[in-house]
Amino acid sequence: MYAMPSTARHAPAVLFIHDGSPIAHIEHLKDAGLRVSETRARTAVAAAKQQQPDIIVLDFDYDGDVSAQLKRDKATRHIPVVALVNLIPSRHQPA
């Protein structure tokens, strides 16, 4: 598990963009010292502008449109975006 170095100036911030369903294992990221926030696709650009996270994790279903908006905006284009498939596991998959 990732542990924050004691000399870190601030905990890395991660912004998750998804459809509103709970994200599996998000508490593990918080326990590891990451600052985690969540938003839906329709408010993604505004949230990214306000929060200026270190990285954005995007549900692949929203990748094209949201990612393009984030990269067009001067205030957010520098933020790395990672698109994940199956960010929210279905009830038929083990957590």
- Adjacency order of strands in the biggest sheet: 2-1-3-4
- By secondary-structure content and strand pairing, the structural class works out as alpha/beta
Order of helices and strands: EHEHEHE
The number of strands is: 4
Residue fraction in strands: 15-25%
- Indicate the low-confidence ranges by residue numbers: none
C-alpha geometry: globular
Q: From the alpha carbons, calculate the radius of gyration and give it in angstroms.
A: 14 Å
Main beta sheet strand tally, sense and closure: 4 strands, parallel
Mean pLDDT: 80
Number of distinct helices: 3
Helical content (DSSP H or I, runs of 4+): 25-40%
End-to-end separation: 17 Å
Could you give the topology of this structure?
Layout: E1 13-18, H1 26-31, E2 35-40, H2 44-51, E3 55-59, H3 63-72, E4 81-84
Parallel strand pairs: 1-2, 1-3, 3-4
How would you describe this structure to a colleague?
The longest helix is centred in the last third of the chain and has 10 residues, at 63-72. The protein has a four-stranded parallel beta sheet. Helix content is 25%, strand content 22%. It has a domain at 13-76. It is an alpha/beta fold. It has three helices and four strands; from the N terminus they run βαβαβαβ. The mean pLDDT is 80. It has helices at residues 26-31, 44-51, 63-72, and strands at 13-18, 35-40, 55-59, 81-84.
